[in-house]
Amino acid sequence: MQIAIIDSNRLSCIGLQQILADIIPIASIEMFSSYEELIINEPDRFVHYFVSSAIYFEHAQFFINNPHRSIVLVHGENYPRIAGLLTLNICQDEKNLVKSILQLRSMGHGKMGGGMHAASHAHSHANCTSSTESAFHTKQPEQKDNILSSREIEVAILLSKGLINKEVANKLNISLTTAITHRKNIMQKLNARSLADIIVYVVFNGFIGVEEL
After folding, report:
1. What share of the chain is helix, strand, coil (3-state, %, to 5)?
2. The pTM is what?
């Protein structure tokens, strides 16, 4: 499974690549700085194109011809809604960006909330849901029942909802030191690099729904 990120902003590409790699570990994710670079690298082999708005509109015909593959990267919510155009707001904090991508994974190319939006017709949704789900329905830890303890799962859920260590401690009636220890253990057990990995774990294992984040 191959995914392309097409954006001249290298840092944006790297950040998005890392998050997608966490959510879709079996995917091979390649970065391109321009449309021309994409075209000479067999573009048809990619399941999805995450493409900057500037590149999308400069080469609109190509991406319009691939509507179920193309996800336009936008900066903020102040952009015109275009029927059939799926967008991802990359000017979000990590938690909300992960949430937006997980919404794509769970809902296909239908209506999106938060930083992701698609105004597509019913037949378009039906045609593209299978390909989207195949790409975004992959990460299922093999030992999900044994990786974290019941208490650690509680802590992980609260962290995913945006609570800080002190708030977690108050919510669970435990000491701040204990909350910090639980967080440290969760990060180690999941080999997590950031909160994004914890969010992916609790959502993909069904401990919390995307709408609850």
Report:
1. 55, 15, 35
2. 0.65
